[in-house]
Write a structure and sequence with these properties.
The protein is about 15% helix and about 45% strand. It is mainly beta and about 130 residues long.
Length: about 130
């Protein structure tokens, strides 16, 4: 179930903070400085979201994240996203699921390949029913 608009920024920040702590703990090479945006080249799960119906498990694909912050993330893609909203699973199982809005796309060369860097902003958390 999607949290209603009454979800406070504090609840979203707390959930993201816990997910980021878990992800940072998994990545021993992560910087320990308190930067807003941290390099985070790690495979995460993403699914397109139509804004109404949550994606099924088979809709999720693996995506290489590029960086991560308390307000959003970016990932590398071979093709432009199909929708302007995504669901991402973060943290350890049980995953924390978040709705993110695509805010920019930038073509780049990464490891000698043409890629698209897709920047996303967290909108809300998806709560289990």
């Amino acid at each position: 179930m999607l949290k209603s608009d009454s979800t406070t920024d504090a609840e979203l920040f707390t959930a993201l903070h816990h997910a980021l702590e878990e992800l940072t703990a998994l990545d021993a090479s992560a910087e320990r400085r308190q930067n807003d945006r941290r390099p985070f080249q790690c495979v995460q799960m993403l699914a397109p979201f139509d804004g109404v119906t949550l994606p099924d498990q088979h809709d999720y694909t693996r995506a290489m994240f590029f960086d991560l912050s308390p307000t959003g993330f970016s990932y590398l893609a071979d093709a432009p996203p199909e929708t302007n909203l995504l669901i991402t699973a973060l943290g350890r199982t049980p995953f924390r699921f978040f709705i993110a809005e695509i805010v920019h796309e930038q073509r780049m060369i990464h490891e000698d390949r043409r890629r698209i860097l897709v920047g996303c902003r967290f909108i809300s958390r998806v709560e289990a029913e």
